[in-house]
Design a protein that fits this description.
Strand content: 35-45%
Radius of gyration: 16 Å
CATH architecture: Roll
Distance between the termini: 32 Å
Number of strands: 9
Order of helices and strands: EHEEEHEHEEEE
CATH topology: 2,3-Dihydroxybiphenyl 1,2-Dioxygenase, domain 1
Shape: globular
């Protein structure tokens, strides 16, 4: 029986920019930032209130990923279009967090709106991934 998720991956083309966005702008914590002998970088972050959940910020174009050329090109196109990595980020105050993150340069797809499940706004990491930032009812 599976009892929990310990890691999942967000693909990014630039791990330094991803580090800046998730750590310096969103406030996630770095769990591991290590380079292997072949230059592969294992970078994982955790949400502040979920230290057991590691999010690996990996570059699918690195040689370690071992994708064929067609797959590598597809990743590049999808990430450049901002078409990967949907998720939901919870916040206790969507409107205040929206204002705070706007001042840090976070890109939003509009302003917070009331939905049947709470207050929500869509944001982009600028690296190909997007998220619903939600204050649940």
């Amino acid at each position: 029986m599976i009892t929990k998720v310990s890691h999942f991956t967000l693909f990014v083309l630039d791990q330094d920019k991803a580090y800046d966005f998730y750590v310096n702008k969103l406030g996630f914590k770095v769990n591991t930032d290590a380079k292997m002998e072949n230059g592969f970088r294992w970078l994982t972050i955790t949400p502040p209130d979920q230290p057991a959940l590691e999010i690996a910020l990996l570059n699918p174009l690195s040689g370690m990923m071992k994708y064929d050329e067609e797959t590598t090109n597809a990743f590049r196109v999808l990430l450049e279009k901002g078409a990967l990595g949907a998720g939901v980020l919870h916040t206790p105050d969507c409107r205040a967090t929206y204002e705070e993150l706007k001042t840090k340069g976070v890109e939003f797809k509009g302003e917070p709106k009331e939905q049947f499940y709470g207050t929500e706004v869509i944001l982009s990491d600028g690296l190909g991934n997007w998220f619903s930032m939600t204050q649940p009812k």
